[in-house]
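Allow me, if you will, to draw on your knowledge of protein folds for a short while. I am sending you one protein, given as its amino acid sequence and as whole-number tokens for its backbone shapes. Kindly check, if you would, that the fold set down in the tokens agrees with what the sequence suggests. The record follows directly beneath this note:
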Amino acid sequence: MLSTKLFKIGDFQTVEADKPIPHGEELLIKVSSCGICGSDIPRIYQHGTSNGKYPLTLGHEFGGTIVEVGNEANKNLIGKCGAVFPIIPCNKCEQCKQNYYAMCENYDYLGSRRDGGFSEYCLLPSKWNFIEAPKEIDEEAFALIEPATVAQHAVRTAGKCSSLLIFGAGPIGIMAARWAKIFGINNVILVDIVDEKIDFANKHGVKCVKDIPDTLFDSSIEGTGFGNALGNAINHTKPHGTVVLLGNPASDTQIKLSQHSNILRKELTIKGVWNSYYDEWKTTIEQISNNNLQVLDLITHKSDLGNLPELCRNIYNKNISICKAIAKIVVQ
């Protein structure tokens, strides 16, 4: 089979690899699509794998069809299609016992710690990591289910509100705005500083601006990881409101003294979010299936596995501007 692997920092290439054989509770999935996450690019070119394991097949936003099982008792799963929950929890720590798998104290992870979805086939630890989807869902949507669920989790964390300000018009920011509408939040504004992103969001049905409205919002979501956006979120959130930290920090986060004071004076609640909750994935699949949540229109770039390293280089070098890029995988 073909797999796109990271051999060392900066050395990302598509190679032939042995097709895995499932044993015990393991499942073999034929991958149909896998998204390029914003975290994949620095993983390839700056940070490397999470546990220093090389070579490693990257990709954690994926899904496909089960083609083989290790346990005959799971034979009924063959032919089913769906998305892959990439976290592999220890199921022993206190967080796992409360079903907070993203906070597992000793987790493994498909695509950053063990082989993931940039491959024709991927081995899943068990059926727990496979979330079935109706066959009418386009297979390309499997590459969006993980980030769509992250966006859903952020909006849920913002709490019940009637107005929401979101910073960052990437795919997760746009999907967060769409989730907000699904959850009945009527006043939703997306903010970015890049004209191309603002135009893209507006053309895709989400109100996006560069200049923040001179008003206060019930809650805000900071999705960029930059201190200036966090400061603006603090300034534009109502007293007793909630500021959700979604974006991974781009550098040491700094805010102004007046903004720090605003947190105190307005008694703001600051909440972080990390990944998503397992049960939220089914909600994402349901909303995509019934056409309430649109995701396919955010895909601006596609590649096969052979051209995937070049696409990632172009993203890293900023030769192209993307909303969402995916690997479309067709097994010969």
